[in-house]
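2 proteins. here.
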Amino acid sequence: MKTVYLVASGDLRLAANQVCWPAQEAMEQRVIAAVERAGARVKRAHPYDPALGHGFLDSQKRGIEVFRAIPPDAPVIVAEAVWQYTHHVLPGLMTHTGPILTLANWSGQWPGLVGMLNINGSATKAGVKYSTLWSEDFEDEFFSKGLRRWLKTGKVTHDVSHVRAFDEARVPPRAAKIGVRFARELRQRKAILGVIDEGCMGMYNAIIPDELLNPVGVFKERLSQSTLYANMRAVSDTDARAVSAWLLAKGMRFHFGKDEASELTEQQVLQQCKMYIAAVRLAHAFGCDAIGIQYQQGLKDLTPASDLAEGMLNNVDRPPVYDEVTGEELYAGQALPHFNEVDECAGLDALITNRLWQVLGFAPETTLHDVRWGRHIRTDGFNDFVWILEISGAAPPAHLVGGYAGAIGERQPAMYFPLGGATIKGISKAGWVIWSRVFVANNRLNCDIGLGNAAQLPDAITQEHWRLTTPQWPMMHLVMRDISRDQFMARHKANHIQVVYAPDEAGARHALFAKAAALNELGVAVSFCGRI
């Protein structure tokens, strides 16, 4: 029988690995049974560690050690039921010569889908050849047929007929003219991304090499989380309370408690307000046009999460921040685009989108989301596949039903954020959406772009989706235009997706073509996805 080696990349945080291990173990049992039904056997490449209470690869060091013992030409399955840090397995995958298959569950509660998409995007950037599959129960025909094909031939191919290259499309001349003019001005004037520590959570796919970014006219200012924290300490309590009072006056609600370890407290929110002020002042000092805060490792051990600050930064209507010396309001009347988890691909997209939407006269608020889950929804007057997009931070209140007044601050899960901090929880309003993803492939910047609709579903379904995912986080229900679940999964090269609203269908099409033309002029390989 053919022997297949199985590896599982996990989190860096012990608590997360321990909590998530039962879900991973249950998924692996189903995967092993499926492989055995197909006539092969599975050898787990690294054992469960009773001292740690999990069986994940939890560091790059451990991943390299494990791959040394795997025959270089053996078939390898990377099985993911949860979020993971891709750099735990990427060094081994980059030198492995045998067939590689990435696998994920299909679950809202256990985001293996998100973890696998990050591995796929990172492997694509690194030039690693791989196949990919996903399943709810690992017994369906789609998965079983694909697995048998991979075991026999070493690869699986999927339908990506929904994708068309920019040159194959007819771009309206007016939109093309706007996009080309915008791109040439951006390249001539240049812009700066403030990168507050690169490589968040091992997301290799989220780092754009300078030699690819700089020709676009965008450059990095590399900053440190310690610098942000030092600037936070210089912010006065008075200034922090002014930001908090501004939010409350706008109608935002916070679910406060008294236990710092498990509940949201006013002090946590005030620390987040200090981070918001410090981030704006730091960005201004270095001339940044957009910023990204890593926030996960290091900073999370010093201060509450950055999510409240991120959402405010991405909103045009936000608390004023003043220069400490001159008293000048910084970035007055503007959003300061923030790219969550220092995802530079999202940062470049956000910068271009924000500025181009201002040229078009559209609301420029934009954000990334995790591609968290998806399911077919049938209810009164609605029958379609819905993607459930969520992100812990960065979602601007302008995207939410009711704006600030419709937003609730809830404590981040203690498993990930020991010092807490509020999110900006809310449901995205209905409307036309342009979605996109910038990614690196074949040593070149690429961008997939398409149209969609943010759907307003019955409250009972919305609450169910929060219950089945992460109830503290903002959420969008996205319906893509003529793209099936499996087509999107086969093509998408990231755990993240960028979204921005347009006022109506005509405006959405015009904006999409203008953005595509701008990216094309900047040398990005643009692909239209779905019906445009």
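next one coming up
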Amino acid sequence: MIDEALEVFKKIYDKEGEELVVNKHIPKDGTYILVNIKSGKIIEKLNIFYDKKTKDIEGKYNQYYDYIRAFDYYSNIIGTNKALDLPRKKIHSNQLYSFFVKKETILKEDLKESVIKYKKNALNPEKRYKGKDMEIYKNIENDLLPIDKETGEKIFSWIEDNITKPLILEKSEEYLEKFFIKIEKDKNEDYLKIFFVEDDLDKSLELFRNEYKRYLIPNIYNKNDYNQKIENKIYGLPNTNMTLNSDKPFLENKTRKIGIPYLVDIEEILLQYVFYNYLIPELKQGNNFIYFSDDKIIPKTNKEPCPSEAKYLLNASYSKNIDIKNFNIISKNSSKKREINFKEILPEKNNNSKIEYGNLDKVMVMELVDKFFFNSLLLGNIFNDAEDIKVRQVELKKLLINYKNGLYKWFYLRDELEIKKSIKKLYLDSIIVNIKTEYDKVSINNQFNLGFCLEVYFYGKSELMEEIMNVKEVFLNHTLSEEDWNLSNDDEYFWAVGQILSYINSKRNTKNKNLNFIVPILSIKSINILKERVFNIIKSYAHLINSKKVSRTISNINIYEPKEIKKFILLAGFTADRALYSSSKNKEEEE
């Protein structure tokens, strides 16, 4: 599925090397300590915390941070089932130059047995591996620097003297605060990570890389029992993004001679592993949209549109593991670039509104569609499955489910086909949902205006907009005329009804002069019932009507016989400026 993405990543990785990934690595929250191997003294103690809101890393300006980041990258285990202290899984580093343990484990667990097992496997890896595991290890052993067991003994003696024994004697928060770290109750998942280094940190970095390879190669496969040797090459099952072991054989195909899903060689598995490590910090920073051109990787957030040079898009998320949602080929988009012009067809009545009209770029379109049509809940849910969409209002959730796929293709894949077909239905549906659920004061007129401009963008015109602009002008001329006039079509009738109901609503003795006044009318499907309901409302509020032009409009409404219901013309008439006041002064006073 992601072969194309891996191909692009490999080009860049071959050119830039491991620094491409190491320099992006974000260490997990915790206390990081550098210990000089020869003297046993602590060189530096640094607290590193990643702020999910600001995307900033506390501690990154420390003089040792770059080294600590690299040491950390080369010291992480692939997973707890690949820990060196199995079966306890309490120590989460992978080599003799580092020691990782969760702070809560220090307080709750006896680490003595874990340290003994960890020391044995770190200093004597050949005793850990058997069968196919040993075969893989033997293939790489000659390419690695030999293990410095004398240095290893110094390191584990330090761990024994400074961690294991003191914790057995005095396991308390006060002791830890005095000696090493401050335990914060709301951050008990933080790590204590200790790195044992030479005077020359660059030399230490080479040692860390060496031990990283010693651990990684034999452990990179999901399980070495599945490995097959073909023409002196070992093929196995990737551990990345895969669930298959003796306890959880979820993906095994029982009908095939070889039941495992697929086998790849060591080079591809290593490439996949490094690629996933490259993705993790991007996903942590909210860059869930990873675009690929021929020779470039372009991480983006969900609020940024598709880059012009992009050819592929990978969507993923990250909590404890990477979850790849989908991988898409991006449309070439050979059509000419057209401007999206946002006009105020129906005036926004909120004087404090900060809406800016004019030409919109893609980012502005995304923001306005999200805000006006989906109450700012679209972009955060756009590639979520229905069950993962956390929206309380049922109608709004249905709206999201119905249209998010078409908008996803348009925003991020440059594919307009699906959303073009449904754009009118989208904005009209969103208006109805807004009426039912009352978005956070999102104006119906803003929804109309944005919908009109998108229709014009896709089709060159909007019939509904033209009908509204035309009937608005005709009705205004009627109200300004001293002569008798008649309604000539259904558009004029429903606009007049909307204007009358808006006028009555403004006169009512209530604070809640909102759309709820006409909601029952919008759901009526029978013309006769609608006419009767409108007549009854007018009759109920007849005492509020003291204007000649209003009386004349009501008279025309009662005479005219509409043929079909045009509820959106009625709605636009209700939300538009009222043309039935006798003067602009009266209008301002009433509003």
